[in-house]
Design a protein that fits this description.
There is one protein chain. The chain has 319 residues and is of the alpha/beta class. It has 2 domains: 78 residues, CRISPR-associated endonuclease Cas1, N-terminal domain (Ribosomal Protein L15, Chain: K, domain 2); 183 residues, Four Helix Bundle (Hemerythrin (Met), subunit A) (Up-down Bundle). The chain is built from 9 helices and 8 strands. Strand 2 and strand 3 form a beta hairpin. Helix 5 crosses helix 6, helix 5 runs antiparallel to helix 7 and helix 7 runs antiparallel to helix 8.
Amino acid sequence: MAGGTPRKDLPGAQPPRPIPLKERASIVFVDRGQLDVIDGAFVLVDANGVRTVIPVGGLAAIMLEPGTRASHAAVALAARAGTLLIWVGEAGVRLYSTGQPGGARADKLLWQCRLALDPDARLRIVRRMFQVRFGEAAPERRSVDQLRGIEGARVRTIYQGLATQFGVSWKRRNYDPSEFDVSDVPNRCLSAATSCLYGITEAAVLAAGYAPAIGFLHAGKPLSFVYDIADLYKFETVVPEAFRVAGQHAKGKLDKPVEMAVRHACRDAFRKSNILSRLIPAIEDMLLAGGLDRPETPEDAVGPAFADPAPSGDEGQRG
């Protein structure tokens, strides 16, 4: 933490300057421990008192599984660092609650609502999402519901193709979030993988100042917009990794629990695809496709949660 004047509520501590989302690591899962701030460090303390330092300001999101407690100081530090805390169920499948790094922006929320409530603008955004996701223009003269049906058919075909590629026995996407272990291994792998993607996508949506619930292709769920944006990258990142891990399990080549293997694979996929540098620009690109003018930013508006200042040197220098 650097810069600024000491906070009155934390004597001697400097308020953190949030790192731009594109420069952060993606996500970590924690369980069976107490999150706290000790000697100025964000740590996980286990039952034996062993401390594990977590670089909170360098992460997009931290997933808190059952058995985890968080102190007020830990939650406050994560909020100031702009890191999303997400309380989840076993293996990250159920989402119970989240923090809100940066908070919503009234001007952006109003724009998002106008776009979602305008049938023509919404359709243009859904068509743009289709084009980005599948690499071709959406069929003409189709409604949002019809495009959703076409998308669903293509997704089922992709699932079957990946299952064949990795030697996985696949029936259909079927899982119960309340009973994770009841699902078969491929479905468990997919659930664990998509939860990772949804976590960092929600962090990006909130950091950019938008509402996770106001979606365009998806609607009526608390994370509808998160699903919209995450789906743009699902099949280039987490879904192939889920089927690859399921295939390794089927062949007896996996030396760790499938959920852990999926998380590690997703972490590596996020790094290779540089997804954190692409999420917020993708949000803006999708909304601009609606064709409604972006509102003027009020003079007294709070700045973005993850500022991206101009570099101080040439391309060969950091900073």
